[in-house]
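Is heme C placement plausible here? Inputs below.
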Amino acid sequence: MVITLLVSALLVAAAALTVLVFGLYNVAGNRQHFQPVHSMLEYAMQQSVRARARDIAVPDVASDGKVERGALCYQQKCVQCHGGPGVAASDFGQSMQPIPGP
Ligand code: HEC
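Reply from A.M.:
I modeled the complex. C-alpha cells:
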C-alpha cells in the first residue's frame, strides 16, 4: 500500500516535471487556462491575498472625500477594462485574455 502510494506520487511528480521542463503547458496571455489550472490559480491568489491582508487595519474610507477620489481614479484608470456600475468594459477591455473581472 505504502509502496503503491510512493510510486504513484513519483509518477505524478515525473509527469508534472515533464510538462514543466518541456514547456508543454501554454502560458500565453492570449489563451485561457484549463479550468482546473484556472481554479487552482484563483484559489492560490485568494489564499495569498487573505494571508497577507490579515494584519491590515481597514482604513477609514468614509472621510476626507476618499470614496469620491477613489471613484474618480477608477473611472480614469480602470473602467475601460473592468467596466463599472452601468458601464460596460470597452471593446479593448473585453478583448483581453484573461478577461478582466467586473
Ligand atoms: C488595460 C486593461 C486594464 C486596466 C486599465 C486595469 N486592469 Fe485590472 N486587470 C486587467 C486584467 C487583464 C486582469 C487579469 C484578469 C485575470 O487574471 O483573470 C486584471 C486583474 C485585476 C484584479 C484582480 C482581479 C481578480 O479577481 O483576479 C484587480 C483587483 C484589478 N485588476 C484591479 C484594477 C484596478 C484597481 C485598476 C485601475 C487602477 C485596473 N485593474 C486597471 C486589466 C486591466
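Short version: The two ends are 48 Å apart (CA to CA).
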